[in-house]
Amino acid sequence: MQQEGYHLEQRVQEVQQEIQALEAAVEDVKEANELLRHSHRSPKMKGLADEQLQLKTELEQALQMLHERQRLEQSLLNDVTGLESSLQNLQSENSTVMECLKLLEEQVDIACKEAEEQNLKYKRAKAQLCRLAKEIKNSHGDELEKINKEMELAEFGETASDALYKLKTLASEFPDYGKIIEDGIVQAGITVPYAASSVRSGRSSVASMSSRPSSRSLMPRRALSSSGSARSSRSGSVLNLEFNSEGS
Q: How many alpha carbons fall within 13 Å on the CB side of residue 216?
């Protein structure tokens, strides 16, 4: 765009030079016309009249060319003005874009630093959690395994109770097959529950199993109860720590 403006300025200068030359030619024609006007008494009157007519024609052509050159000059000046305005707008937009780009780069740098810090914190926390879970597992491994087995057994019991309750429901909904279902359950020596089991009942049964006195314990009932609750709380935290460390 700057190069195009430079070419336009050169073109304007050339047009101005041509206009000056045409103006000089007009002045020459005017002088010749004056001389012709004062030469009526010359013996070459006829030749001067022809020359006057020719000069008048040339003058009209020169004036017409002058007007065209002036229009061209004005058009070129308008183009130069428009290009200069466009150049200023582009420079302003470029400055704004550069400022925005600088701000974005600063924000990206800040975000990268924060991400690195969070990553380091995450790695440290993960290492501490794994180390703590390993220590707890080493010191309470048997107790943790016992709690896990009791949980699995309770969940299996819940599933079996739900299945038996559904069989009882089917027997009541389809009387034709109810007798067959009930006879099969009675022959297996299974007691049908009155309602479907829940997760809460299963968890409470696990808690009761965990707090049940063992044959090797000779402690008083109050001491045994407090010891069992403390052991249950500690085992629950062990489970949470182990699951979290494995998930991470």
A: 0
Domain that holds residue 241: 140-247
pTM of the shown model: 0.32
Final residue belonging to a domain, choices 70, 101, 132: 101
What is the rounded CA–CA span in Å between residue 81 and residue 73? 12
Q: What is the pLDDT of residue 194?
A: 53
Q: Is the pLDDT of residue 46 over 80?
A: no
**C-alpha 47: how far from its chain's center?**
89
Any long-range contacts for 71-80 (C-beta under 8 Å, 24+ apart)?
Answer: 72/15, 73/12, 73/15, 73/16, 73/19, 76/8, 76/11, 76/12, 76/15, 77/12, 79/8, 80/5, 80/8, 80/9, 80/12
In a domain, 129, yes or no: no
The 10s digit of each residue's pLDDT in 108-127 is 888 889 888 888 888 888 88
Question: Which amino acid, 198?
Answer: S
**CA dist., res. 201 & res. 205, Å (int):** 6
The answer to whether position 116 is within a domain reads no
The structural domain count of the chain equals: 2
Question: Would you say how long the chain is, in residues?
Answer: 248
Q: Which amino acid is at 207?
A: A
Secondary structure of residue 49 in the 3-state scheme: helix
How buried is 83 (Cβ within 10 angstroms: 0-12 exposed, 13-18 middle, 19+ buried)? middle
Residue 80 placed within a domain: yes
* Domain endpoint, select from 101, 131, 156: 101
Statement to judge: residues 156 and 89 lie in one domain: no
